[in-house]
Please model this.
Amino acid sequence: MTASRPVWTDDQLAAARLVSIEAFRVERINEPLEMYVDRFKAARESVESLLRVSSNLRCLEDAAMTILSDARLAETARYLAAPPISKDDLETITGVSMAATRILGNPERAGVLIKPIISALDEQRFPWLNADRDAHPDEIEVAVVATAAMQAMRNVETLRRNGGKNRQEARVKRFLVEECGFEEVKTRKIDTIFKAPEPGTFCGECEVGSRKADISVRLWDGRLLPIECKVSNSGTNSYKRINNDAAAKAVSWIEEFGKANAVPAAVLSGVFALANLTYAQGNGLTLFWAHDLSPLKDFISASAC
Model:
């Protein structure tokens, strides 16, 4: 008999999410201050270099090639605008890639990319530009600190998001090997159940049907267990992480492979709204928690019966 996927009651989900939130709080409280300090120092050096090569932004267009062909300065340049312009937005607005090799091969690209930044320069941080005068030393210091802090904060947010996800993936893989006796194999494209890894094995991020999965596990009974590793820092953010992404993938995988062949799952850590959890589970997503992976082991073991 095929092992049924675990389905949790609202009370069980509510209890588990509280444990997950507490673990998230502890992690944030114990997060080393150096993570921000180091990125602030690096951002400050970059801002100072950018101001130096552009004569305190008064010759920004003339320095565009120097700035945008340097990945470090190019990132800082986007934070000169109010609000900062994302890389994707800048490329979309201009229709030009920010790849340094492309810019070096065609210097005109730098001029195109710098124009939206110039038109959106923050007059509050750089008051001398609107007044068409040289900057005072204290104005430069304020501008450097404000811009570096903004960039460092965003870098830490990205590091938290990507770092948390990467750590979670590594933990799940280690659990599969050490606790479940599975073997990691080469990544491959899985467009049919026959192209999935052999039972008792798994692979890392790959295309499963029309969507990517973080980890693809082949259960002992032959079913595919595509796992998404999701980390959320708020109940609002959890909608994007679990409903708009993982649950949507679950629906696609069940449609493409069938309920008999696929058991979409997510391993969660952080803060998730109860309503989002119940919605995702109701749409075929099997939920596990990073703080307690024993139910995942139980389900995998049951698939061998």
About this structure: The beta strands are 183-184, 201-203, 206-208, 211-213, 215-218, 224-233, 265-271, 286-289. Residues 34-157 form one domain. The mean pLDDT is 94.
